[in-house]
């Protein structure tokens, strides 16, 4: 596959996948998600690879979720089909990160917001730069991830904190995220990739079968949430067609305060 939105490299048993859309803070469009799936699947299929690092280009953002400028009145830019009605194959991307038998390390170099936050949550490990900022934003922009993005998040940070994260849509520092158990390690920005590579290298030295079985075992406990995700994504496909959802996207794109008052019933 010819990659436009993603950079993909493999070295010494480690695959590195970089979302490369810094002009929109590494927000993803349908093409980006397809390229991410392709890259993860290649790393999955390559027996020389033992661990994957996911990061974002530049120093501003890891990923800020769905590209709001590429979102039309019925979802993102590639509607229907495998996108399940939301126009993005995000559910397949989530499943691929979880199902691949090799640990995925998120190297969070800036904002991890919205669907970008969900991506790091689903990675096996998260290493953050001191300047990283974390948070959900769906309810501000007319969206939600009512599957793995909420229920699996609650497994990590606890029910109260997960509800706070989604209901208030605040941003949290790397230190706050670490205290919640969302981040494994914080390092200075210029040490981020070196540390991620160091951790990945330590994994690559281990028994691949042991690592695979451990990942499957950790996943098994939350596997039922994938069923909830299917229902959530299907409902989102319908929600994206509403004026309420459009108001959230329009307010962001038009850089104005959002007004959901008229949708309160
Ligand atoms: C991340 C920010 C807080 C940064 O704010 P700051 O003021 O520092 O910078 P700017 O706002 O000026 O941003 C710089 C530049 O980048 C553009 N940009 C940033 N994020 C996006 C984005 N997501 N889409 C499109 N463009 C973006 C921004 O417009 C600027 O460009 P200019 O040309 O105008 O200079 C702040 O940027 C921010 O809050 N961003 C929005 C983040 C957001 O709301 N994301 C969530 C969207 S919903 C989502 O991600 C989502 C994805 C899924 O896949 C789902 C799947 C299933 C269920 C739900 C999903 C879901 O909700």
From TrEMBL:
GO terms for biological process: menaquinone biosynthetic process. InterPro entries: ClpP/crotonase-like_dom_sf, DHNA-CoA_synthase_MenB, Enoyl-CoA_hyd/isom_CS, Enoyl-CoA_hydra/iso, Enoyl-CoA_hydra_C. One of its GO terms (cellular component) is cytosol. Its EC number is 4.1.3.36. Keywords: Lyase, Menaquinone biosynthesis. It comes from the Bacteria. It holds the Pfam family ECH_1. It catalyses: 2-succinylbenzoyl-CoA + H(+) = 1,4-dihydroxy-2-naphthoyl-CoA + H2O. Substrate binds at residues 64-68, 76, 111-115, 143, 240, 255. CDD domains: crotonase-like. GO terms for molecular function: 1,4-dihydroxy-2-naphthoyl-CoA synthase activity. The record marks 76, 240 as: Important for catalysis. Pathway: Quinol/quinone metabolism; menaquinone biosynthesis; Quinol/quinone metabolism; 1,4-dihydroxy-2-naphthoate biosynthesis; 1,4-dihydroxy-2-naphthoate from chorismate: step 6/7. Belongs to the enoyl-CoA hydratase/isomerase family. MenB subfamily. Converts o-succinylbenzoyl-CoA (OSB-CoA) to 1,4-dihydroxy-2-naphthoyl-CoA (DHNA-CoA). PANTHER family: 1,4-DIHYDROXY-2-NAPHTHOYL-COA SYNTHASE, PEROXISOMAL (PTHR43113:SF1), NUCLEOSIDE-DIPHOSPHATE-SUGAR EPIMERASE (PTHR43113). This is 1,4-dihydroxy-2-naphthoyl-CoA synthase. It comes from Neobacillus bataviensis LMG 21833.
């Amino acid at each position: 596959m010819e990659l436009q939105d993603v950079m993909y490299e493999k070295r010494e048993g480690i695959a590195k996948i970089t979302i490369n859309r810094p002009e929109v803070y590494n927000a993803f469009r349908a093409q980006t998600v397809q390229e991410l799936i392709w890259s993860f699947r290649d790393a999955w299929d390559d027996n020389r690879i033992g661990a994957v690092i996911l990061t974002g280009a530049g120093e501003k953002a890891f990923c800020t979720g769905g590209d709001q400028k590429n979102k039309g009145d019925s979802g993102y830019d590639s509607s229907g089909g495998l996108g399940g009605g939301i126009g993005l194959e995000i559910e397949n991307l989530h499943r691929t990160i979880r199902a691949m038998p090799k640990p995925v390390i998120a190297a969070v170099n800036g904002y991890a917001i919205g669907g970008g936050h969900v991506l790091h949550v689903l990675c096996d490990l998260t290493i953050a730069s001191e300047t990283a900022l974390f948070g959900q934003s769906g309810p501000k922009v007319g969206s939600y991830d009512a599957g793995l993005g909420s229920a699996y998040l609650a497994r990590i940070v606890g029910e109260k904190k997960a509800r706070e994260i989604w209901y208030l849509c605040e941003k949290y520092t790397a230190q706050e995220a670490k205290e919640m158990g969302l981040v494994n390690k914080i390092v200075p920005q210029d040490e981020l990739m070196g540390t991620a590579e160091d951790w990945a290298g330590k994994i690559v030295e281990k028994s691949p079968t042991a690592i695979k079985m451990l990942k499957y075992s950790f996943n098994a406990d939350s596997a039922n949430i994938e069923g909830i995700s299917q229902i959530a994504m299907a409902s989102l496909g319908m929600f994206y067609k509403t004026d309420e959802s459009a108001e959230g996207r329009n307010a962001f794109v038009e850089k104005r305060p959002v007004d959901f008052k008229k949708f309160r019933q």
